[in-house]
């Protein structure tokens, strides 16, 4: 089934008297369980598109349907609600709370979802186990390696069982070996049925995805199935 459907999405920014067309009539669909990489040069519209897909921003015109709901004209509050329910975010800079334990970092999205403390801790522990960090629940982010921090962030993205994981340059701050370890984890998560959309400018990272969409100047330049994605070892 379809999890994302954009119909002729436009996004314009006003800079004084100048109008910047960041997205030009972008129509894409993503099915549940797909693993997609967005590529494209700086300024091509990747962040703008990810922000719209992640319900952090709305298109200027066009329609965006997320998990069957038209979110194009939703208010900030409605967007926040659907974002917490449907989207798990992974960032280049991890965005973890430095003073909170791994368990508390991972449990944070569940606070807004209204689970009890015991339920939050149980779910957060499961999510940490799921990324191989079941033994690190009490550690703080600065007591972990970069790869482990990104795993904590991935556990946080997964904890609410979202419809999609949106990863913006997830390996951008990691060395090559650690980057491939994280892609290994994405491979496993995809194999378990998760839907993943990531932005990367690295070809060898994009090659793990099963479909690669290239943007240029706010347009979809190519949208190709990767016939031979890099596999986990
Ligand atoms: P943003 O999300 O801030 O709009 P991008 O998604 O374009 O920026 O890029 C994220 C990071 O990757 C930035 O630090 C940018 O400098 C870097 N970057 C983007 N494209 C390239 C590229 N082709 N080669 C090297 N670094 C890049
Ligand atoms: P990418 O992520 O591929 O680097 P962006 O989506 O960040 O591309 O940017 C697409 C275009 O929109 C660029 O020309 C950029 O300068 C412009 N842009 C992005 N965000 C804003 C903003 N908040 N205000 C004005 N222009 C913006």
TrEMBL record:
One of its GO terms (molecular function) is ATP binding. InterPro entries: AAA+_ATPase (IPR003593), ABC_transporter-like_ATP-bd (IPR003439), ABC_transporter-like_CS (IPR017871), ABC_transpr_LolD-like (IPR015854), MacB-like_ATP-bd (IPR017911), P-loop_NTPase (IPR027417). It holds the Pfam family ABC_tran. It comes from the Bacteria. Keywords: ATP-binding, Nucleotide-binding, Transport. Coiled coil: none annotated. Residues 4-233 form the ABC transporter domain. PANTHER family: ABC TRANSPORTER ABCH.1, IMPORT ATP-BINDING PROTEIN. This is ABC transporter ATP-binding protein.
